[in-house]
Amino acid sequence: MEREFKEITIKEYVSTLAQMPYESELEYLQRRVSIVLRQPIESIKALPHTIFMDYVERLKSIEDNLKGYKIKKKIKISGKWFAVDTDIMKITTDQFIDASAFSKVAEKELHKFIAVFLKPMTWRFGKVSAYDGKAHKEISDLVFEKMTMKDAQPLLVFFCKVLHELSIHIRTYLEAEVEAIVKDLNPNGATSLQSITSQIEMLQSGNTSLK
């Protein structure tokens, strides 16, 4: 089942996360297994209960245990190459803000979260473009439709873990960023702590840099 799980797309996986209002718990689990195995729901319903529950437990185990997944520095999605920004300490302020905002709903919109860390390349060994919030939707849509869990899941786990650790120091980071902006705008005047605080609260509210 692990092989099948790795091959499903983000779009397929996201569709398995929420239980529909009309579904019982059993029907929800049957639909999840059906999507992962790419088998008709009727075939899953026809399985002996012990075999079906074995699939359910195996799926849960895969989702809980991600050992063995490896993060690639470059990935190819539907014929397009992207560099993966794994050095969190070097990401831009826009990337940091966008990733922080999307991480709050990463399970439902993990394609948008992952897209923050993907930089387009001209080809496999070609030039890497800088992060551009205006191109984010196009990249996230491609990730949603074409990226498989084999590539997506290790990225999601890695970046969420790193961002969680960074959040411990987020206020210091944002203070430095906002103070620099205030000084640029008013080089001859005193920096207003109140102004900095209001800017930080705005950034922490979940706003993104996307236009």
How is this fold's topology laid out?
Layout: H1 2-7, H2 10-14, H3 25-37, H4 41-45, H5 49-64, E1 74-77, E2 80-84, H6 93-103, H7 110-115, E3 118-120, H8 136-146, H9 149-167, H10 170-185, H11 193-204
Helix pairs in contact: 3-5, 10-11
Tag the structure with descriptive keywords.
11 helices; elongated; mainly alpha; three-stranded antiparallel beta sheet; 211 residues
Largest sheet: 3 strands, antiparallel
Distance between the termini: 40 Å
Strand order of the largest sheet: 1-2-3
Number of strands: 3
Estimate the helix proportion, in percent: 55-70%
Shape from CA axes?
Answer: elongated
Structural class of the helix and strand makeup?
A: mainly alpha
The average pLDDT value, as a whole number, equals 78
Alpha-carbon Rg, integer: 21 Å
The poorly predicted ranges are none
Description of the molecule:
The protein is built from eleven helices and three strands. Helix 3 packs across helix 5 (49-64) and helix 10 crosses helix 11. Strands 1-2-3 form a three-stranded antiparallel sheet. Helix content is 57%, strand content 6%. Among the domains are: 2-64, no CATH class; 74-92 and 106-161, no CATH class. It has 211 residues and is mainly alpha-helical. It has helices at residues 2-7, 10-14, 25-37, 41-45, 49-64, 93-103, 110-115, 136-146, 149-167, 170-185, 193-204; strands at 74-77, 80-84, 118-120.
